[in-house]
Amino acid sequence: MMEGLKNMLVMIELELRRLRHDRTEIYTRAVQPILWIVIYGPVMSSVRAIPTGGVPYTDFITPGVMIQTTTFVSIFYGLTIVWERESGILKKLLVTPASRYSMVIGRSMASGVRAIFQALIILPVAILIGVHFVPNPAYFILAFIAIFFASGGFAAISILVASFMKTRERFMGIGQAITMPLFFASNALYPLQMMPPILREFSTFNPLSYVVDAVRGLLITGDLSNIMIDLVAIAIFDVVLFTLASVSFRRIIE
Hints:
Blueprint: H1 2-21, H2 24-29, H3 31-47, H4 57-75, H5 78-87, H6 89-94, H7 100-128, H8 137-162, H9 168-184, H10 197-203, H11 207-221, H12 227-248
Helix pairs in contact: 1-7, 3-4, 4-7, 4-8, 4-9, 4-11, 5-8, 7-8, 7-12, 8-11, 8-12, 11-12
């Protein structure tokens, strides 16, 4: 148990070292979400066609945009795995005493660290354009914990996909095909009641919907009536994906 935890912390420390030496990707990936809240949000606010429960539309979409960009970072984290397979690094890791589970969970949670930094870039921009956040430090901490663990689950998806994809080009295509449907079939940009019935049903199984709902309640509306359901859903999502990714991890070098 302690050895596995140590392995996971080593993976997280490695990711922090990477971020310290090269932050370019974090900044460039922040451009798209900033455009969402700086341009798309105010434009759609003037339309007033989307029921947001009295919350300004830009405020409403800010949590969804934060989760979208952190999910994008996590889903494409598997590119690192593909590169390490091609360079032979993964083969060396798999012959170490470290268990596959600790390696997968450690890599996944390392992606959560990158996701937190991504969200922290978007937060001050949102404040500058007038997004109103709930002034409760405990809510902010819990929201970022939710983002951290949910990002780990999405990174586990990328590891699972990487175990079947042999090239980075194929992985990029699959990653895009996963990210966009998750985003648009969630409550990130509009309430669930606006969706067609079939998409509404899909959203109940979409982990992104639960993450957005939790972060929106904690940071924007202060409504925590569903927070336990959201957190339990995130926990189940993580456990299932960590298990699947760990089982398929050895396929990466085959």
